Amino acid sequence: MTRAEKIVEILKSGTVIPANPLAITEERKFDPDRQRVICRYYLNAGVGGLAVAVHTTQFEIRKPEFNLLEPVLKVAAEEVDAFEKKTGKTIVKIAGVCGDIPQAVKEAELAKSLGYDAVLLSPGGLSHYTEDDFIERTKRIAAIMPVVGFYLQTSVGGKIFSYDYWKRLVEIDNLIAIKAAPFNRYQTLDVARAVAFSSRKDKIALFTGNDDNIVVDLLTKYEFTENGETRSVQFVGGLLGHWCVWTKRVCEMYEMLKDFSKQEYIPAKLLTLAAEVTDCNAAFFDSANAFKGCIAGVHEILRRQGIMKGIWCLNPDETLSPGQSEEIDRIYKLYPHLNDDEFVKENLESWING
What we know:
Blueprint: H1 3-13, E1 16-18, H2 32-45, E2 49-52, H3 69-87, E3 92-97, H4 101-113, E4 118-121, H5 131-142, E5 147-152, H6 163-169, E6 175-181, H7 185-196, E7 205-208, H8 214-219, E8 221-226, E9 229-234, E10 237-240, H9 247-260, H10 268-285, H11 294-305, H12 324-334, H13 341-352
Parallel strand pairs: 1-10, 2-3, 3-4, 4-5, 5-6, 6-7, 7-10
Antiparallel strand pairs: 8-9
Helix pairs in contact: 2-3, 2-9, 2-13, 6-7, 10-12
């Protein structure tokens, strides 16, 4: 089996893919050593993939004054390659790709040259694009390498798409997965229905990016009947910013939910778990302040564990919102069973020393 075939198989069966944060120093310079620690944490926690140069990695890495896109992608790729060589496990490497067609093409070519398996194609910052433009953009990138489609919530720069758009998108060859992250039930249903009725249904893996509804997404079977034919789809995994913290527990939870998703009846305790995870996300992502502190929030968890040295972002104005640290204190007290502090404490030194 080729690597490309293995990647498709992993995605179709489902896995945990955290959206990697960025490690920088207090002077806002890239910290490659600590970036490697972050990657080692995820890989040893049991993830099946890494998503790099995405929202939680900070879009500012592309700005000329930082020029960090290639260094960040390279460090993560090196860590995955080393882990694969050591363990024999295949890890899906996904690179975030942004911007208009020329920029997206350039970034996809860079990702391919660094050995990435697929790109997560962000619609952010392209409010002037029509749906036809987005379709053409996806086709151009899919001609370079496999694409993960992306429904991004509007509060962080996404765009609302029609059901017809998703019907067209899922027919594009080399679209191998979709991250549905509109944080909206109606829009999530549009994606699920489009995949269900696609001629390429069996070639597309559906991943949740709805950090506000993770558990329910992973437990739900979406069924649609048309002309006497019933088709069903399920979210097989997640590609999530939320999953870049407490990742060991995430991997354990994911395996449990995967087992329960195949059963006819769902225990009520899993709905309680769903509410707990969503409450945690509210603190991590700073939902009370329109997600302004979402990146700093996940940094704060990693800082408390010693994985990151600080919560600094490339944009000095991007930091915790007032009261957000207290909210994180609150969820630590309410849901101690969801953190993986002990796992990190036991292994951090080995990750730092390589």
